[in-house]
Amino acid sequence: MKNIIKSGLILAVTAVLLTSCDKRGFLAPPPLTNALDKEKTFTDPVNTDKFLANCYNGLTGGLDDFGNGQNYALISDEAEAGPAYLATNGVNFGSVDASNNLDNAYGGLYTYIRRTNVLLSNRELMNGFDKTIKDKFVAEAQFLRAFFYSELIKRYAGIPIVTSPVAFEDLKDAAAQAKYKANLKRATYAESVDFVVKQLDSAAAILPWAVTSDSDRGRATAAACVALKAKVLLYAASKLFNNNQPAAGNEPGNSSNPVTGYPNYDVNRWKLAADACREFLTKNQANSNWYYLYTGGYDKLFTESRDASNHELIWYRQGTSNSAIYCNPAGRLGGYAHSQTLLNLVDKYEMTNGKQKDEAGSGYDEQQWWVKRDPRLGMSFVRDGDTYKGVTLEFWPGGKDYNDTHRTAIFFRKFQRADENTGLQKWHYIRMADIYLMLAEAENEVSGPTAEVYTNINLIRSRTGVGMPGIAPGLNQQQMRDKIRNERAVEFAFEAQRYFDERRWMIAEQTENAPVYGFKVSKSGNVITHTRYLIENRIFKKRMYLTPIPVVEIYKGASIEQNPGY
Q: Which domains occur in the chain, in start order?
């Protein structure tokens, strides 16, 4: 099946404009406002670099993914929205369809795929460049296109693969438009994954392993290529796409449809993912172990990202955002209480003795639920009684920070500097912790809990400033699988990983189709009481494992197949 189509998708066929960008260094070129002139743009390395910067402008991610301080944590089992009017509340009651989908990334991603296609289709105009510069521009555009496609694949499964921009003259009459629509089909899932992997391998052969200049922060590297390949292959090996117990009928996870997954289960797909992680570690070692777990403290990993010693971040979006303040408590901290931490997540943090809170001998006390817990809990969240940004928080009725939109009485401090009202400096897509936990997960699926599996998960648990005990020996494969999944939930809390993990593992029917809990805080004299209570019973429908193709794309008459259940 050849779905490498010379066309744009829902994209405008008018000339691309070189717009300005608010990111730092390379990613902050002066604006060019004239319509694109291919000759002037791609025969000049300065203008080509500016055009490439606008391809990077398609990078998204943060605590404001859906606007108004809404994010992926709110539509997973991590967080609850305070105000009732936020759209994430509808998602949590199953209100998702092809015309009403909060996570509608389709059009935006294809817009930036088109930009990379414009650059790549004009590479011959760069023949006057120094070959090293030209090759680097092309490789960066290949990487970005692969990244944008990977974001589509993990949401929609197989998608139309578009490798050239459409020109107005190509669609100027009805016959041309009809031909275009007839050819516009979704590739199989296997073809989509293979395309991304090949693009990443090609780019990795050209790009430097890591950036060496401060002005180049945020640009693609060979390390980002290999790390993203590992992540794409890990998703491809996961149950949603590689199911050893196929779902019945026309549902996600059914191997009978090659567009939505592989036609058979193959454990070797897990091996490919593990090997990609090992490839990263081998190449990193050959490059003097440039990437390593940050030793400046887990909390500072998210706020001191320009620290010269922070080599944990492999692929990230450069730039500053204050969207974290949406998630602060209402009141003295000036927040809107839009993202509040659920006890469903908090309960996953182990006690410092390595036991889950409900295990015998754990030492857990609900009235001091934060005491003797995994240090990442205190570095990720704030509660009543904490002194934070100059105030001591009071969430009980009559307290200075009490508000009726406070649903859980736990807010997050992750991404926020405690000494000022600013948010994240970079948004992390992949960091070293991900490499280790992906390797542990993939190897466990291939061979069970080998010594390599223990080593990699324990590297995360023992990281500087965390110091959790190693995983107890003697676990079976399922027990280790549960440990790895719990470790991912804790390590990557609020980093837009849990939402996709729940889907690729196909556990959302249990974790999101479930009751969610918070604390009510009261005070009598000097005694503060925490009472666990049911916030709501959420609804997750099986079709929500995959994202619906926007209904406008289906109605355009192209041969775009809708995802199951929509």
A: 1-60+105-188 (1.25.40)
Distance between CA atoms of 110 and 108, rounded to whole angstroms? 6
* Residue 342, CA atoms < 13 Å, CB-side half-sphere: 26
- pLDDT of residue 343 exceeding 60: yes
Return the amino acid letter for 253: G
Of residues 46, 220, 88, the one with CA closest to residue 150: 220
pLDDT level of residue 464 (50, 70, 90 thresholds): very high
Asked if 281 and 290 count as a contact pair (C-beta separation under 8 A), the reply is no
Residue 10 C-alpha from the chain's centroid? 24
Whether the CB-CB separation of 338 and 69 falls below 8 Å is answered with yes
C-alpha 144/C-alpha 149 separation (Å) is: 9
Q: Which two tokens stand for residue 355?
A: 């036991």
Chain segment 465-499, per-residue pLDDT in tens: 999 999 999 999 999 999 999 999 999 999 999 99
CA atoms of 154 and 502, how far apart (whole Å): 12
Report which of residues 230 and 30 the model is more confident about. 230
**Residue 539 DSSP label:** B
- 316, containing H or E segment: strand 313-318
**CB within 8 Å of 390: residues ≥ 6 apart:** none
Instruction: Please enumerate in sequence order all residues whose Cβ is within 8 A of that of 331, keeping only pairs 6 or more positions apart, or say none.
Output: 400, 401, 402, 403
**pTM given for the model:** 0.93
Residue with tokens 């080599």: 311
pLDDT tens digits, residue range 260-284? Answer: 999 999 999 999 999 999 999 999 9
C-alpha to C-alpha distances, 69 to 21, 64, 83, 106, 363, nearest whole angstrom = 21, 4, 11, 21, 36
Which H or E run includes 54?
helix 45-56
